[in-house]
Structure to design on (369 residues):
């Protein structure tokens, strides 16, 4: 028996546990006013729920994040700081008003709508000045392009609301037309947020007329700019939504007076903490409809070959556990699954197995729902 030196758990496990404990403690801590610039692109109903919780009409529903997601969000701040250092190299520019708090309008209650800009790009020529927000993004595999980053940039070329500046940037003349054309995209929230700052007296007094989302790809340090002209129409839309929420939500039930900006199947609803309230009977297939690549496991109990598969899986799992080769049984299982046109299966104890088609041949692997 090997005596493992050090803590009984791996450092990674210990850290995950502490991260989750801290996240739990933070839930009880300071609550941010939900009607802020960074929420400008969010669903009105979601914001109404958040606002009702903020003023104490109901309990706050928290999004449960896994420790790696908490770390990923925190890493974003460091990347944004790094990007700011790089941006200092821009010729003719200096970074001004970093984290400057600006106010945009006053709510009927007298509360001031305010937020802080990442930075302004300052130039001697007022036409060159901009409000900028840095957004770190991740990449993932895309079947057609290899990289989702490249795929998204390619998609811009087909959009009538976007004009190419060069290989590393696009311009949007009318953000409202862009939002209508792009559908669900993180850029909607980014642009709506910066557009709020563009309409603050602080920014307008300084003659700034455009905003820019500076995207930084954390996997490879590639970058890209999405520039847009300030839109008073978009600003007024967000302002009207926020004022409606503050004016109408006086009891917990009033949240239903605020319309839903999304429907079941939208990505926004998939991970929204209020989804059980909006769509209590939704199935997983309906919830994740916007992720078409997702394969769903078939419950073994719902299959015609259930008994044969159960009899094959029992020794297969046993053989895997004791380290013996399970190859023969594995092949038999895959044959039966394919006979029933099933690539992913959920056993009675909820474990999921999936046939993976590799260059070296098909393999049966443990999988997730
Ligand atoms: S589930 Fe969808 S519609 Fe309901 S609040 Fe959340 S984002 Fe809005």
């Amino acid at each position: 028996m090997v005596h493992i030196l050090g803590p009984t758990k791996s450092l990674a496990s210990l850290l995950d546990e502490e991260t989750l404990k801290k996240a739990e403690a933070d839930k009880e801590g300071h609550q941010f006013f939900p009607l802020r610039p960074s929420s400008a692109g969010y669903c009105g109903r979601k914001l109404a729920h958040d606002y009702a919780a903020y003023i104490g009409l109901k309990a706050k529903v928290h999004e449960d994040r896994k420790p790696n997601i908490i770390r990923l969000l925190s890493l974003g701040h460091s990347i944004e700081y790094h990007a700011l250092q790089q941006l200092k190299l821009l010729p003719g520019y200096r970074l001004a008003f970093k984290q400057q708090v600006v106010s945009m309008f006053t709510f009927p209650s007298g509360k001031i709508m305010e937020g802080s800009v990442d930075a302004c790009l300052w130039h001697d020529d007022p036409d060159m000045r901009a409000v900028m927000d840095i957004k770190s993004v991740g990449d993932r595999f895309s079947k057609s392009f290899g990289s989702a980053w490249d795929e998204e940039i390619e998609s811009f070329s087909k959009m009538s609301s976007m004009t190419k500046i060069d290989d590393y940037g696009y311009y949007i003349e009318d953000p409202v037309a862009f939002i209508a054309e792009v559908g669900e995209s993180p850029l909607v929230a980014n642009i709506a947020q910066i557009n709020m700052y563009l309409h603050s007296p602080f920014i307008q007094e300084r003659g700034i007329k455009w905003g820019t989302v500076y995207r930084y790809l954390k996997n490879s340090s590639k970058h890209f700019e999405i520039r847009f002209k300030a839109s008073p129409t978009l600003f007024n839309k967000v302002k009207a939504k926020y004022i409606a929420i503050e004016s109408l939500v006086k009891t917990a039930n009033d949240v239903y007076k605020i319309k839903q900006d999304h429907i079941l199947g939208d990505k926004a609803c998939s991970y929204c903490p209020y989804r059980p309230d909006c769509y209590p009977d939704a199935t997983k297939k309906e919830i994740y409809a916007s992720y078409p690549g997702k394969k769903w496991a078939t419950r073994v109990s719902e299959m015609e070959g259930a008994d044969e598969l159960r009899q094959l899986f029992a020794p297969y799992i046993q053989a895997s556990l004791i380290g013996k080769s399970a190859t023969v049984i594995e092949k038999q299982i895959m044959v039966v699954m394919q006979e029933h046109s099933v690539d992913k299966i959920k056993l009675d104890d909820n474990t999921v197995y999936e046939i993976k088609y590799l260059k070296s041949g098909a393999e049966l692997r443990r999988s997730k729902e």
User: Anything to note?
Assistant: The mean pLDDT is 89. The longest strand covers residues 130-137.
